[in-house]
Amino acid sequence: MPESPEVEALAEEVGERLTGRSLAGVDVVEFRTTKTRNRPPESLVGASVTGTARYGKLVDLSFGAAQHLVVSLGRHGWARWAGGGGDAPAAEDRGSAEDAPPALVVLEFDDGSTLELTDAGDWVSLGCWVVDDPGEVPAVAKLGPDPARPEFSRADFDRAVVGRRKQVKAVLQDQESLAGIGNAYSDEILFAAKLSPVGHAAALTEAERDRLFEATVGVISEATAAQHGVPIDRLKEAKVASMRVHGRAGQACPVCGDTIRDFSFASTTAQYCPTDQTQGELLPLK
Question: Which structural domains are found in the chain, ordered by start?
Fold first, then answer.
């Protein structure tokens, strides 16, 4: 799942490439991606990109003051360059056609650039809205404060965490509480904070909340800086390479040497270090 550091880098690259370019054509391959049926992406043809922004895990392409294409990448969505855009990755870097996720929406621009919006899931999680204001998109309107933003404060964090009778990992991933964090970075944050992912936020001591706040801001800020300037076709592998515990089950913990373990969380699998995070307790794996 794309998270705020990667989506920020995606928005930056798309903005650098497409600002000032006119949308020449749109091919919506999968109609379920269009969430504003009365204003499909095709309605933007002829308009020019004036900038891009990120809202949590969503990307906003603005076409003037009152036209926005907001893209939710969902669980398996992403974007890639194709056609005559000049910097599209070589075929050997993209993998075989059989391995490549399908393009569900194709945006063509007047300089020959083609941006494909893809989805690698078994069900369609990619979504597109054409709106006057990004706040009209429900997922944007409900977003909590964003730890990647300079204005994010301890007060913002405390409002999201203090007193919550919910597992800490779930709080971190709740977009209405804290924007932009998913399964991978919540694992990394909790490892850095030396906290159990299944402990309740309401049970955290003041010292534990201090560690969690510092880890949340630190992990997300460092990842955002590290992903800055990485080409969008390399962002996934850069994210994977940066992980210390997420996706490392069976490997040695980089801090204590214990074996990193999987555990079941919601509808997915996450990772943790028993020695550093759960005082040796093994969490259930269904």
Answer: 4-141 (3.20.190.10), 154-277 (1.10.8.50)
